[in-house]
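Pasting as-is:
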Amino acid sequence: MPRPKIFLVGGPSGAGKDALLAGAREKAADVAFVVRDVTRAADQCSALERSVSPDEFATGEYALRWSAHGTTDYGIPAKALEDVLAAGSTIVLNVSRGAFAEARQKYAERADVYVLLVTASREALRERLSSRARDGDDAEARLKRATAYAPPDANFGAAVVRVRNDNSLEEGVDRFVAALTRPEKFCVPVLGLVGCSASGKSTLCAELPAAAVIAADDFYLPRDACPFVDLAAEVRWPSGELPTAFQIRGGADLNHPDSVDWAACADAVDAAVEKIVDAGGGGVVVVEGLLLLGAGAERVRDRCAQLVLLDDGYDDPAKQEVLWRRKWTRTGHLAKTSYQQRGVSADEFAAYWGDCVSARWKEHGLDRVEAAGRPIHRVDAHADDRSAQVERILRALEPAPS
């Protein structure tokens, strides 16, 4: 008997999850779509829901149960799920995101457990949510909640299968059914690579066998929309004066997470994943950035199956000098000439590095490691084998072929 597969279906409001479930049920006759019990009127239930009274629900036996908004109870009937597990079926469960962990904990030893995430572009979500909005609804607030919906992080321990539902219902249903048949094709892990400025993130990404690389630096906001830093007051300049190159640079604080359009960065990660899925799957997407651990970057971090931190040796003056000299002489970053070419002396740049760049990295990077709430691999940014170390982590994320 084949080992059962359980697909826990989730997705943001407006992604079209219910429509895909209904369509896939008609098309995939060999898949068990377990009907859930719901304490609401029958005329408000979908084809995969059974209306029950609160009293009936209270006495029912459920494999999984949860509540929404404190008014509606949902449950997956225990007997129905046990029957299809015993038959070795491919099983689809429409459950709350909050029930994912419980489902995996209960059934991972008896079945391969996947999260099947139905997604849609921001434009598609906005159109669908606007069309169903009622008087008094805040469509933008609903859109914000929908775009903030994220799959389980790496602590969850199950593969996330992504089904994009931007176009016709027929196309969406076909993709949904294909994902049930070949889930590995729709699993594209994302690796987050974070490290101090000049720690070698971009160089490392060029050496890795990643299917796609997304750089958070490409999503800086316009300078006048970034937080302001008073470099004249914040940095202990050797001459006591703000160097001309920094006067020209201006006060945009590009070492602050609020300077990045994280929503656009997350959209770019999703687009890269979808492009790989459309091409037949395989590979890992890497998203790299100085500020990935910062407050506000949650949407991007939540998409990462694993985070890797390049340890720059913050407390080691010799290692820090390696980094600041690299950044001082680097050309081409953000389409600019080097600070050295712009007339900044080594002493001036060392002061800027210590009082601003390194200090911001500690605040928005190193001091945020625990706040990320998940395991983070540390790799020595100065190690000769750092590329090999990160490649091993990346390879471990790749889904095994079926």
